[in-house]
Amino acid sequence: MKFRSLIFKNIFRNKSRSALTVFGIAIGVAAVIGLGLLTEGLPSSAQNALTAGAADFSVIAKTTNIEGAPSGPGGMGEQQLISQDYVKEIQKISGVNSAVGVLRTMTNLDNSSASNSSTTNSSSQSPTGDFRSMTSLIGIDKNSLSMDDIVITNGTVFSGENEVIIGKRAAERSGKTIGNNITISNQTFQIVGIFETGNFQDDSGIVMSLDKLQNLTGDSGKISLILVKAENGTDTSKLANTIQNKYPNELTTSTSLSGMERMNEGLNVINTAVWGISLLAILIGGIIAVITMMKAVSERTREIGVLRAIGWSKKRIIKMIIGESILLSLIAIVIGIIIGISVVEILSSTHMLPGLQPSFSVLLFLKGIVVALLLGIIGGIYPAYRASKLEPTEALRYE
Amino acid sequence: MNDLNIIEIKNLVKSYDNDKIIALNGINLEIKEGDFVSINGPSGSGKSTLLNMIGALDRADEGQITVAGVNLMKNQDFSEFRLNKIGFVFQLHNLIPNLTVHENVQTPMIELGIPDDEMEKRAIDLLRSVNLDNRLEQLPTKLSGGERQRVAIARALVNHPRIILSDEPTGALDSRMGDIILNLLREIHRKENVTLILVTHEEYVAQSADRIINMMDGKIIN
Questions:
Q1: A88, A374, B94, B190: which is deepest, by most CB within 10 A?
Q2: C-beta atoms of A392 and B99 within 8 A
């Protein structure tokens, strides 16, 4: 009979107690695996949510007056426009998936004027509604709205020359809705859709075709910025540098780092909380493992005395008990992983975790395995030590 | 039998519970290799304690004890000594309940690292010698008291010990089965030329030995 056969037989002696030990360790493994699957997927889920369809960075003018554009009374401060020709050039750069030109300006619709750095104000009364103070005007190609995080929640995208879509907040504040008209710089536009971006300022604004806004502001062939989306697998930082290096005096790039940083800070908090929960589960699992192994050893005190009497060394007794713990841990690893994955899959399939994408990684499973083995070994060490310290006569007297 | 002492004990003292119970009170004893000795006495006379001292299951407080050339007063673990020199047969057989008959007999050999097939062959040969080769795959719970004791005897012999220590081997058996076990031990002693020390409180069992040591209150009285 092999020593390992004896260990294997021993764990099936008291099936309910072994099952309890396995359960305890499996809780720890399932917690590490399950919570790990979710938290490791959090960064990509959050990043996807932040960047789904949207540009990776924007390209703007580096210095003032690069186009020699005159400054006008802009409501939100002056901005430098760049030539729309840059869009085509940037589109050709390797690694660029798409580049979209956007003209942004501000207008006071109470005075019915559109203004930007290159636009001289013209006024007319707004026929209805209250847009109050300054309103964003965004000119962009209708097929590239997603590049600017614009999602139409109601109605359709503008198609005719005199059609616009307005932000959800703008609609709420002005009382205007789809089908109503709005006057901007003496021109009447029909509202054909309501959009939402999640950005307070943009949601208070109005979006129309780029050509129309350029025409409205007199900035033909000019844009405020270029939204750039990199191809999959392209390093966006490197791509941004490439563009900057290509136009060192004319253009610069801007990323929404602050948003990513805030996201990372939030993820760190979540990760800490998850580790706290995992540690608690591991602790509970460990306590269960120690208690059940202690009980198993205690019930076999007399038997351990017999083994010592027939010549087994203390080392052999320790090996036997630790071996049993490790074997139970191996079973717990399988069960824990199954439980962890199943719970996450069930939660995902029932849409209880909207937007969360479980992320499977070898490292995560290694963590689960290490946790189980540590729990098994720690759970076995103390009982094994106590058993090895038993004097044979004392153990043989045990009833 | 020969003239060499396999066991030499001088002024051995063992007490328990902070000297409140004196189990052995100055034991002097010499046993020659190959002897069949019975230690007889009433309950509490110290006979089992003396047997435990000889088998290095317990440690004496004072005196000297040398068994098979090993000084058992040294402060060390004597598991190797027990493995190679001693075979134990307990009153309650003390078999491992979840192991089959032949697996129980193999347990001492695990510590020796003997190859599997040799372990199995040696166990089966021994079980054949105690007429249990038809119960190899049985669990101890399925055996009678006498059969269990025969398995325990086979286990005690598996490492070719020089001394067999048997504590009340017939104590839990009826007289017929007790006789069978006693005859088996006597036969093993004769065939294997092992030193057999048998603790008993039954006079007729004690009488079967070549030499009888009577104990009372922790002392040898004959």
A1: B94
A2: no
Q: Which of A12, A302, A307 sits opposite B107 (nearest CB)?
A: A307
pLDDT category of residue B165 using cuts at 50, 70 and 90: very high
Query: Any idea what DSSP says for residue B140?
Result: G
Contact assessment for residue A396 and residue A306, using Cβ atoms and an 8 Å cutoff: yes
Give per-residue pLDDT as tens, B84-123. 999 999 877 789 989 999 999 999 999 988 888 999 999 9
pLDDT of amino acid A367: 84
Of A310, A312, A391, the CB nearest to B88: A310
Query: So what's the pLDDT on residue B205?
Result: 87
Tokens 């290096």 found at: A245
Amino acid A110: pLDDT: 59
Report domain extents, chain B.
Answer: 35-57+77-220
Which residues are CB-contacts of A170 (< 8 A; sequence separation ≥ 6)?
A131, A135, A176, A203, A204, A205, A206
Instruction: Give the residues across from B7 on adjacent strands.
Output: B31, B67
Reading the block at residue A273, the tokens are 């909380």
CATH fold of B35-57+77-220, please? Rossmann fold (3.40.50)
Which residues in B lie closer than 8 A to residue A302 (C-beta atoms)?
A: 94
Strands (E) in chain B, as ranges, are 5-16, 21-32, 36-40, 62-67, 70-71, 86-89, 163-167, 195-200, 211-216, 219-220
Q: Contact at 8 Å (CB) between B138 and B110?
A: no
Q: Is B55 on the interface with A (CB under 8 A)?
A: yes
Cβ-Cβ contacts under 8 Å between A and B: the total is 80
Q: What pLDDT does residue A137 have?
A: 92
DSSP state, A1? -
Q: Which residue has the tokens 């080392």?
A: A315
Do A310 and B96 count as a contact with CB atoms less than 8 A apart?
no
Query: For chain A, which residues lie within 8 Å of any Cβ of chain B, measuring from their own Cβ?
Result: 1-3, 6, 9-10, 12-13, 302-303, 305-314, 316, 391-393, 396
Mean pLDDT of B158-165: 92
Q: Which residues of B touch A4 (CB under 8 A)?
A: none
Mean pLDDT per segment of 10 residues, for chain A of length 399 residues? 87 86 87 82 61 74 53 47 93 92 84 41 38 78 87 90 90 88 89 86 89 91 92 85 89 67 70 80 82 83 88 92 91 92 84 66 86 85 85 75
Domain ranges of chain A: 3-50+262-397, 57-254
Condensed to tens digits (0 to 9), the pLDDT of residues A89-128 reads 999 999 999 999 999 998 877 544 444 433 333 333 333 3
Encoded amino acid at A8, one letter: F
| Pick from A116, A126, A222: nearest CA to A166 | A126
Window 163-222 of B: residues touching A by CB (8 A cutoff) are none
